[in-house]
Amino acid sequence: MDFILESSSESEEDEQNRVQRIRRRRPRTFTPGINFNFKTIFEFNQRFRLTSLKLEEVVNIIGASLQHETGRNHALSSRQQVQVPLHWFGTGCPYHAIGDMHGLSKATVHRCIKNVASAFNRRLTNIIRWPRNLFSVIRKFHHIAELPMVIGVIDGILINIDAPTVDEEGFVDRYGDHSINVMGVCGHD
Where is this region: Disordered (predicted)? Predict the structure, then answer.
């Protein structure tokens, strides 16, 4: 009989603990909408490294695969989801910096980059064409430097620049200098 009484009081305690946890639940906060309306065309091109017309073209190509099935939780539009990774691709800033600039969490920035990169990858074969004579390119690289199975060489560099008057903080690299991050791919010739 004691066992039944203890069990009953334990279940009441569990119920009270559950109710207290629900009451202590942190309220959800939503940041205001992202403002991607820039004052000048130059500022837009500087942040995203392409014109607004090209951005619309990208949104038209991959936007349907980025649509959310629900309107809950203040979900980002397809255009906003494309703009966040393009800003990251164009500047190379850390996720938290991109998030701070646009009022997003680091996790949201990561999800946007992952979703847009996946959408690009799904359409990769429609956009990127490999050389038809792939084995010829491989042979030429091997002949030049004895590099096996290479079709291109990629490298990146920070090119120092004078501090710009607009968006100066967007051009500060990890060393504290003003620079532009440049990547390039070279073929055998």
Answer: 1-20
Shared domain check, 88 and 174: no
Q: Is 123 helix (H, G, I), strand (E, B) or coil?
A: coil
Compute the distance between CA of residue 114 and CA of residue 119 in angstroms, rounded to an integer. 9
**The total number of residues written for the chain in this structure:** 189
Give the closest residue to 62 by CA, choosing from 108, 98, 113.
Answer: 113
Residue 139 belongs to domain spanning: 130-186
Shared domain for 35 and 74, answered yes or no, is yes
Q: What is the dihedral of CA 187, 88, 94, 32, to 10 degrees?
A: -170
Write out the H or E segment, with its range, that includes residue 186.
strand 179-186
